[in-house]
Amino acid sequence: MDVDALQRTESAFAVSNGHIGLRGTLEEAEPRGLPGTYLNGFYEQHDLPYAETGYGYPEEGQTVVNVTDGKVIRLLVEDEPLDMRYGQATDHDRVLDFRKGTLARDTVWSSPTGRRVRVKTERLVSFTQRAVAAIRYEVEPLDDELQLVVQSDLLANEPVESDTRDPRVAAALESPLIGEYHHAEEYHAVLVHQTRKSGLRMAAAMDHKIDVSDGVRTHIEAEEDLARLTIAVDVPKGGRLRITKFLAYGWSAQRSVPAVRAQVEAALAGARQTGWKGLLAEQKEFLDDFWQTSDIEIDGDPELQQAVRFSLFHLLQAGARGETRALAGKGLTGPGYDGHAFWDTETFVLPVLTYSMPDAARDALRWRHSTLDKARERATQLGLRGAAFPWRSINGAECSAYWPAGTAAFHVSADISDAVVRYLNATGDDEFMRTCGAELLLETARMWLSLGHFDRRGRFRIDGVTGPDEYSAVADNNVYTNLMARRNLFYAAEIVGQHDDVARRFEVGEDEVALWRKAADAMLVPYDEELGVHPQSEGFLEHDEWDFEATDPDFYPLLLNFPYFDLYRKQVVKQADLVLALHLCGDSFTPEEKARDFAYYEARTVRDSSLSAGTQAVVAAEVGHLELAYDYLAEAALTDLHDVHNNVRNGLHLASLAGAWQGTVAGFGGLRDHGGRLTFAPRLPPQLRRIAFRLTFRGTRFQVEIDSEGATYHVITGEPLELAHHGETFTVNSERVRLPIPAVDPGPAPVQPQGRAPVRRRPKGA
């Protein structure tokens, strides 16, 4: 076993349901890379230090807490602890099963004195019982009768190391949990803790079922930060010790110690009643439905096929049972970025969920709505009307220290409104529109009207903002921001125009709506006639070029090796910005403009962010550079499996995982949803024989299947749909509709900055 690889595999092998997240640490707890057990929304506060403070600077940060670890099951074989650094593991296999929803392990280990055992484990976090996780642990002596001792723990305040030099990793928290209650009896224990500053209270409980021959001895104990069940038994050769460990977690900002204790004990009772086999059956049934709705099939590249399913599975784990909590940039796979949610959620992850698990998309948007009061407070603090949503947060308040590339990223509010409109168009969910969606659209529209202004020529300008590219900051009229704001204003006006009761409820008058429409119609979208391209923001095309030839390859990402002020004044792009506008606001550009813009920004984009490759795959496919799109798709899909950015130990990159879906469905499938109408422009790269994917729209589940000559559409369940294929409108039902794929001439291949081209993809095992 490669002990050093644990830092990466613990993230890849994480199991979660959106409420509970367990990193893929070994049951023995050591060796390990980074321990991690997380509850969505459970955090600790800490001060944000400034050398010199300023008005409006956030004062408190929020960091996800590694809560009480229930994964720990230590084994002693004739008093020798099973530790993969000692003795010898002659066999060791771990499998994250996308169909069963479990992490399984099979290890044959010889102790330093030669005693051999087979250890088989399987763990799950339940999709159906939100507060429950469970572990099946089996030990079999392989040569002789052995005395086995198992210690099953609940362990709080594990020490966690943090690389404080890297702003992408979590703040170091030392013993963030204060013990409030502990109790143990028979095979059952519960610990209750509260955070020191944020005042959140959580409970963790465990119970056990032990299957073994006679002669077992047990002892249970509990103290403030540790509850331990010790099991001792002599097991003959051919015999087996089997332990099922049931875990339950819960937290609250308001409930008392007895209440959170009762919550987890009730969840444990339900898990015991269901039993291990019942939990497995529920898990598989849930996943069977998910894969029937959401699977993507890729013929011609087995590794890419597996990577795309890996991506879909982890997106499901992040969003399935989040239920009005944030979807963090790392999900619940690690502490990277302190467990914060960014605009990644709405722009990259929610399109996947909207067309595969719309209920999960709705719940994520409900979380945003639940934080509206904090967004209004932030807008007021900034001298604005409406709602200004935070750059990064756990509870809805801005918790990023002042940083131009984040603090001025107002586009997050338009990204949220865009996700609202996409969800409403895809589902027709009138209840959500009235309870959450309309208010989100109206309050963000109010923010844009107060942030921007009409200039002397009557154009609506939005100055002093940061777009998606964090290597440009506080610029005027960022094209992506302005186009997304225009859409935000337009749809807010449409909602009010269609629903008088909504207008009355939120006190929206005709004059306000008229201003929204006027601002949308007059929105300034800069364009350079001489170069024939759109500047990322006003003045961007006048900046000096970055000297890529003189940049050492080891100096990427640039943010860790060059001052931001130098990045801000050069034509160097961290991640897709104008190119993201070509995708999401593609109805605002001509095909010729898209081709020229894409080529121009390809030569200046260094992809120092995992958000970028998926978007570049989408637009490369649209303008006809299919092999380049294939390379970018592979980069997005394999970002975590290949640890492209060398930081997977801190958690997976949800936006890049979503980029695998985007690159496949929106890239090679050509899916666009402008105006609520689904259109497709499929094309296949020469390396692949076939792609098939499934989507859900307005309650109808349908499939798109693409090969080198054409595309086939058919409805799996539900009513017929009107779609478009390369501009041709057609109706799809249960009968298969086969349509040809027109040829495309992409022109010369674009170039990338020296050393920053994607790796040329060569399928393995095809």
From TrEMBL:
GO terms for molecular function: carbohydrate binding; glycosyltransferase activity; hydrolase activity, hydrolyzing O-glycosyl compounds. The active site is at 470 (proton donor). Pfam families: Glyco_hydro_65C, Glyco_hydro_65m, Glyco_hydro_65N. Residues 671-732 form the Glycoside hydrolase family 65 C-terminal domain. It comes from the Bacteria. Residues 2-252 form the Glycoside hydrolase family 65 N-terminal domain. GO terms for biological process: carbohydrate metabolic process. The keyword Hydrolase applies. Keywords: Glycosidase, Hydrolase. Residues 741-766 are annotated as: Disordered. PANTHER family: GLYCOSYL HYDROLASE-RELATED (PTHR11051), GLYCOSYL TRANSFERASE (PTHR11051:SF13). Belongs to the glycosyl hydrolase 65 family. This is Family 65 glycosyl hydrolase. It comes from Amycolatopsis thailandensis.
